[in-house]
Amino acid sequence: MSWLVLSILSAGLAGLWQIQQQYDLRNAEFYRIQRALSNILTQNETFLPLLSGNESLAALQHKFPQLLAMEKTQGRALDSQRVEPAQAGRYWLYNPYQQTRFLIELEPLMRNKTDFLSLRLLWQQQPMIIEGSAKPKAFWHWQQALAHPLQPFVLEADANPAWRQLSWLPLISATMLWGIIVAATLALFSQRQQQKRAEQRALYYQHSRLNALGEITAGMVHEINQPLTAIQTYVQSAQRLVARGEYAMLPQALEASLRQTQRISELLKRFRDNVSQKEILLEAVDLSVMLARVAALLEREMRAADITLNSQFAQDASSVLADALWLEQIFHNLMSNAIQAQQNSARGTIRIESRRLQNKIEIVLHDGGPGFSHEALQHAFMPFFTTRQEGIGLGMTLTETLILRMNGDITLSNDPAGGARVTLRLPAARK
């Protein structure tokens, strides 16, 4: 509907513009004729009255081609009418002072003006010269008085737009242009809507995963606690049986402990199945764009901890082949850990760099914290290992899982200059 309305408006404006061009041409032609007539009438009133009537007509016609004849007159009153219409669009112009009259012809100036339906020269509201139709039904009308005291004529003209001469090219071009603009706008709007819905779905998916992960973790802790308690009881019973030398009941206690460990194994397998994903599609991810989004999410935390973020991505190491959402989640976890590690520092820093290693991109994250402890370097990727009282110990585990699923790897170390160092290696995006 928008395309139709805009096309109709554009076509109308293009048509009006062409019609206006036609009007301007006819208007210029009308006033050109009016100026030509005014020049002739000015000559008639300025030079012809000076003639005595004894001059050579042929010589005068060379200078005044509108002059057809010249005669002597007698007894013409000074205040009498100076113009007297003659046949075939001609008129006599009297000069009572010199007792002469001149036969004037103006029709050649108005002849064959095909742009006009009608072209008329009026004298005392009566047509003296008519070119074209006498009473046309026209769209345009012009009227101009020729202000000459002795020859008070009025020039009129009528014309219609030349509809068949209108060019269809601007109309078609405007229609096609608006079609392209509307189609591009709709495509852009649809793309934005799809992107927005995709972001909403990703956010909802992320929240759902986190909620589900929290529920699974809480349930798993509750369920594992029971077999662990049972294992502890069976082990203590076995110790007592061994101390008393009663070995007959010992196999039962060990068998019961084995069943409980198998139960724990099944619980962990169910947990792994719940958090596992199906096949994913990797794509080129711009590290600068990704980091900007993560930095925006963590802006408040970095500002509160007075932490400065610096990034330096090599020109040939600025794009990796990964899942954008997962890569953001990984950097969110790593930067959150770096921020929390520097809570007690006066001023903290996070520095991220990248370089090319053949078909891999190496990304290194440094922080200004105390670095990893020896225990953390050994067990950081183990589920539920955490050095924070409020942590659940799944952040680094999830990070390693996602990195591995994107055909990458992750290593932890301490920077010789101080602080923690996390190194990620991911496939480089092909051009």
Outline the structure in words.
This protein is of the alpha+beta class. The chain has 10 helices and 15 strands. The chain has helices at residues 2-46, 57-63, 107-110, 168-244, 250-275, 287-297, 299-304, 324-341, 374-379, 395-405, and strands spanning 67-72, 83-85, 90-95, 100-105, 118-123, 126-132, 140-146, 153-159, 283-286, 307-313, 319-322, 348-357, 360-367, 409-414, 420-427. A 5-stranded mixed β-sheet has the order 10-12-13-15-14. The chain has a 4-stranded antiparallel β-sheet with strand order 1-4-3-2. A hairpin with a 2-residue loop joins strand 12 and strand 13 (360-367). Helix 4 packs antiparallel against helix 5 (250-275), helix 6 (287-297) packs across helix 8 (324-341) and helix 8 runs antiparallel to helix 10 (395-405). The radius of gyration is 51 Å and the shape is rod-shaped. It starts with a helix and ends with a strand. The model has no long low-confidence stretch (mean pLDDT 81).
Secondary structure: elements and pairs:
Blueprint: H1 2-46, H2 57-63, E1 67-72, E2 83-85, E3 90-95, E4 100-105, H3 107-110, E5 118-123, E6 126-132, E7 140-146, E8 153-159, H4 168-244, H5 250-275, E9 283-286, H6 287-297, H7 299-304, E10 307-313, E11 319-322, H8 324-341, E12 348-357, E13 360-367, H9 374-379, H10 395-405, E14 409-414, E15 420-427
Parallel strand pairs: 10-12
Antiparallel strand pairs: 1-4, 2-3, 3-4, 5-6, 5-8, 7-8, 9-11, 12-13, 13-15, 14-15
Helix pairs in contact: 1-4, 4-5, 6-8, 8-10
